[in-house]
């Protein structure tokens, strides 16, 4: 495997890839372009807001900061207050909600996820490690010396296992469906954690907060397996960007993945404001 190496190259000229952007590319190159490259007349990228996305943002905003608190103090947090605070930025149309009733139902669902964690807090009482100086940091590195490609991403939670001086990756899931077995998420996490931490990774888990009282163990790829899987897609992304041709496989008809973003370009979506990462948000 090529050892990931940082160097002095200009990061502004590099192609940045992440779990979400490569996931878009796999679904449809046109979707990738519209979501990750295109900027509108306000020089902002565009995104589609939705109740599911809003719920996920709010729940993660409550749970992820706990890893920056001493393990013995984590359950002392006023979780209801923190959840209400996290919900405000995604309330109303900014969260894709079309009615008060729809928002109330999603907010209640999100709060039940927090209550599940409070009833089964053991995974969050384990000491944690961090991959940056602050929560705002975005871990990133050049994936190989020869490729002008930067891999970036944040990991929800890194448990520190004192008994063998290892790391376990924990990812919070708020969706209704299981992560696809072919997902690049764990390969990407493997590369990121291996690059920034010298300790071995002994395991990974997904915690489906909507239905499971404990995290589910997931098999981790080796670093070589992770590298081969990630670099294959990353190089496809870089090559496609270099060609300047990022089209839908269905041609001008479009597909279910890119069609919603095409509606934004045609003025058929409702602009609801500016969200995280300075994106213009729309409701379809």
Summary of the model, kept short:
The chain is 35% helix and 17% strand. The protein is α/β, with parallel strands linked by helices. A five-stranded mixed beta sheet has the order 3-6-7-8-9, covered by helices on one side.
Radius of gyration: 20 Å
For the largest sheet, list the strands in their spatial order.
Answer: 3-6-7-8-9
User: Helicity, in percent?
Assistant: 25-40%
Separation, N- and C-terminal Cα atoms: 43 Å
The shape is: globular
Structural class: alpha/beta
Run of helices and strands:
EHHEHHHEEEEEHEEHHEE
Task: Please tally the helical runs, counting DSSP H or I stretches of 4 or more residues.
Answer: 8
* Number of beta strands: 11
Mean pLDDT: 95
Largest sheet: 5 strands, mixed
Q: Which stretches of 5+ consecutive residues score pLDDT under 50?
A: 1-5
Strand content: 15-25%
Fold blueprint:
Blueprint: E1 15-17, H1 19-27, H2 29-36, E2 46-48, H3 51-63, H4 79-87, H5 100-119, E3 128-129, E4 140-142, E5 149-152, E6 157-161, E7 166-173, H6 185-196, E8 201-208, E9 216-218, H7 223-243, H8 259-265, E10 270-274, E11 280-283
Parallel strand pairs: 1-5, 2-11, 7-8
Antiparallel strand pairs: 3-6, 4-5, 6-7, 8-9, 10-11
